[in-house]
């Protein structure tokens, strides 16, 4: 059964926007809509290269932005992203929090810029990249500002699927069918913690998730 696009929350993020209080508010409003409507799928439309203009930032704002992204990463809905053209800055940071990513052949992924034209912003995007892809496979992109093409992004698992056009990518996102299981947030969290949690610490959480599945099956 296809997703009902009339109730599916959508949010567009332009990578040329710097982190700001308005952008943080947009992310929280989007998360509120997902939670209030109990949506099964939420869609983000991402594009725009990282801005070269240095907006006024302070560490408190950066913290709020990272926490808004973390909230997005923990939503109970399956998050689907469409990506086209150059995608960097805040758009790339949002992309790395999503569950399923659909790009077009012209996609180029670039890390958020730091204090110089080729300096990667040392935010949590680096943490997510290292955990999702591995240090060796993203080292050049992180250290030397090497753009990641669409085909390479698919190879690395940063994109899940390529669509021939933006319209096709949007259609796929709007008709995305999520898994029938209701615990996507639990399984996502177990994956996110897998590389940083010892077996002994992880065992209890995995057993609790298994028990939840078994109880659901018995019901």
From TrEMBL:
Instruction: Keyword check for Isomerase, yes or no.
Output: yes
Superkingdom of the organism of origin: Bacteria
Q: Which UniProt keywords apply?
A: Isomerase
- SUPFAM superfamilies associated with the record: ClpP/crotonase (SSF52096)
An example of a GO molecular function for this protein is:
isomerase activity
Question: Per its UniProt record, what InterPro entries does this chain match?
Answer: ClpP/crotonase-like_dom_sf, Enoyl-CoA_hydratase-like
Name of the featured protein: Isomerase DpgB
In its UniProt entry, the species of origin is given as: Actinokineospora auranticolor
